[in-house]
Design goal:
Layout (H helix, E strand, L loop, with lengths): L3 E2 L5 E2 L2 H7 L4 H9 L4 H6 L10 E2 L5 E2 L2 H7 L4 H9 L4 H6 L10 E2 L5 E2 L2 H7 L4 H9 L4 H6 L6 E2 L5 E2 L2 H8 L3 H9 L4 H6 L7 E2 L2 E2 L2 E2 L5 E2 L2 H8 L3 H10 L12 E2 L5 E2 L2 H8 L3 H9 L4 H6 L11
Antiparallel strand pairs: 1-2, 3-4, 5-6, 7-8, 9-10, 11-12, 13-14
Helix pairs in contact: 1-2, 4-5
């Protein structure tokens, strides 16, 4: 077992044991020795003790720490630290009042003024979250305030359901789909009645579209279905500056026998070759005939 000796030659089972024998933490001794202190100085120099009253305000009052000083001035210590880190003077950091977010006044359907929406909801005995959700869901202000404080909700036709879950079940819409559509800015009717994937969004927002002829569509999906292209094809054309309503270009291709096909895919389908296999063979230096027939001629070699 390794042993340590002090400057007097006394042995200890470990460095930690020697540090404790001299009355201070092992980390203190280890730090001193790593900084090049000789053993005698490292063992005999007393460890520093924290002084009380390490924080002083602008009036000269001392506090044991920053948290106590902040508490004495009735403020949060995190705010005080933040102000001091931004080079505020001590007096300003302690005495400048904290800015409060003042709520905006609002009025009910009868014209009565309330200091905030929260106070108006409280006056009508409903939850603030319920009130906000009802207003966002298309409720009139009167209905949002006067309906009992429950999970009742209403669709775009005015039908009342005991809960949002019951309404979504009636329309066959998943809750996540409905929430995502509402967050993207869809109307309540679209969120409830649109077919799956019918409402295309960009950056979480609905994107109404027009084609090159000025025809308006409710969303990107509807336009792509009308034009007969996929959404990915639309974005590819958009990146290349191609109008979305331009007809697809046809690139005829001829095989080794001189037979012409309207597209590469049509030729590959005729020879029952996948596009991946064709590309791989072509990349390895196979001739067009070999790429289509799937075999190398005698006396030739291909790279792997």
């Amino acid at each position: 077992m390794p042993q340590c000796r002090d400057h007097l030659g006394k042995e200890y089972p470990s460095l930690a044991a020697m540090a404790r024998a001299y009355g201070f933490a092992p980390v203190v001794l280890a730090t001193r020795l790593s900084r090049g202190w000789d053993p005698e100085t490292a063992l005999l120099t007393p460890a520093r003790k924290r002084r009380s009253g390490t924080c002083t305000d602008h009036l000269g009052n001392r506090y044991p720490d920053l948290k106590a000083m902040a508490k004495a001035y009735g403020m949060d210590d995190r705010l005080l630290r933040q102000r001091l880190s931004r080079s505020w003077r001590t007096e300003e950091a302690l005495t400048v009042p904290v800015r409060e977010n003042r709520p905006k006044p609002c009025w009910d359907h009868l014209g009565r003024e309330f200091p905030s929406m929260s106070s108006m909801a409280e006056a009508y005995g409903i939850n603030l979250y319920t009130l906000q959700k009802r207003l966002k869901g298309g409720f009139s202000l009167q209905d949002a305030l006067m309906l009992p404080n429950s999970h009742a909700t209403r669709d775009h036709l005015g039908n009342v359901y005991p809960s949002e879950k019951a309404m979504l079940e009636a329309y066959g819409i998943h809750r996540n789909t409905f929430s995502r559509r509402i967050a993207a800015g869809a109307s309540l009717e679209d969120a409830l009645t649109a077919k799956p994937h019918a409402l295309h969004t960009v950056d979480g927002k609905l994107e109404p579209k027009q084609d090159g002829k000025g025809n308006a569509y409710r969303n990107l999906r509807e336009m792509c279905d009308t034009l007969g292209i996929s959404v990915s094809a639309y974005h590819a054309r958009k990146r290349r500056g191609i109008p979305p309503d331009r007809p697809n270009r046809v690139h005829p291709i001829t095989d080794h026998l001189g037979t012409e096909y309207p597209t590469l895919q049509a030729m590959l389908d005729a020879y029952k070759v996948s596009r991946g296999a064709y590309r791989s063979r072509k990349k390895n230096g196979w001739t067009p005939e070999e790429c289509l027939l799937g075999r190398k001629k005698k006396g030739t070699s291909h790279e792997r």
